[in-house]
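ARCHIVE CARD
Drawer: 12
Card no.: 0347
Subject: one protein chain, sequence and derived structure
Cross-reference: see card 0346
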Amino acid sequence: MKKVIILSAFQKSGQTLFIKMKFQNSKFLIMSLLIFLTMFLFINMQVSFAQQPEKGMEEVKWVNPDLQEMPGLSHHILQSKVMGHDVGYVVWIPSGYSEKADERFPVIYFLHGHGGNESADAAGFSEWVKNAITDGLLPQVMCVFPNGGVSGYRGNVEKMIIDELITTIDKDYRTIAKAESRALSGFSMGGAGSVYLSIMHPELFCAAGSMGGGIRGGTDEFAASIKKAVPVWKKNNFGFFLVNGDNDHPEAFEEFSKVLKESGIENEVRILPDTKHDLGLYYKQSVNNLLAFLGRHLKE
């Protein structure tokens, strides 16, 4: 009897129960779809994030021939075995290079900042150098602008410059192929790079000028490299010109300068007022002083 009653109740409310079950199944389906979509979007975001290039791994265009027109300025390509591909570089020669066919010239290697390339600062810096020569702040000097990518001028780019580019320049041009006639300069990453290459290869240069750069080291190995470089710097009468803006890491070379002073190495640290990380501001406020400093160290 009990079974019949239950069956009767079920039969009477069958339509209602069916509707309720259908509604409940629909809610379950919707919730399932929402969960699935959420999981899909989350996984897709993770995959997309994983596929983003790591910091410092941006794609680099290694040959950039578009140059602002300027007498003496030319673009060239180095077939680099170290890099495994072509690398662009720019050369500027002063007017005296063609006028004095038997004369040899000192060289300044200018290193661009992060996001730049061999052509980015070539005309601007060369114009300042040309004016410095006219004003007697510099001897007749050549300028070379390598493409450093985003390397910090370390690793393979460092090897390319040291082992291939300098050799190529000394072979193709009438340079004075000695440390006493070869200097480094640069802005931002390039300023830091000029100091770094001076530490790691002190036998190749006589001076370095950094604008808006900084030194990052702190390891025992790096400290040992500085200690090893000191006697070579002394032999080459090496000097460092280190300039930063008051709004652009003015403390960047503080510790390094102390080490240089304690070691008896000439260094000049300047903090520019009202100056942010802007090459134009550094040019206006410090580049003539930097070039005059390099000029006192470069030998003709």
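Annotation on reverse: Residues 73-297 form a domain with the Rossmann fold fold (CATH 3.40.50.1820). The first strand starts at residue 73 and ends at 80.
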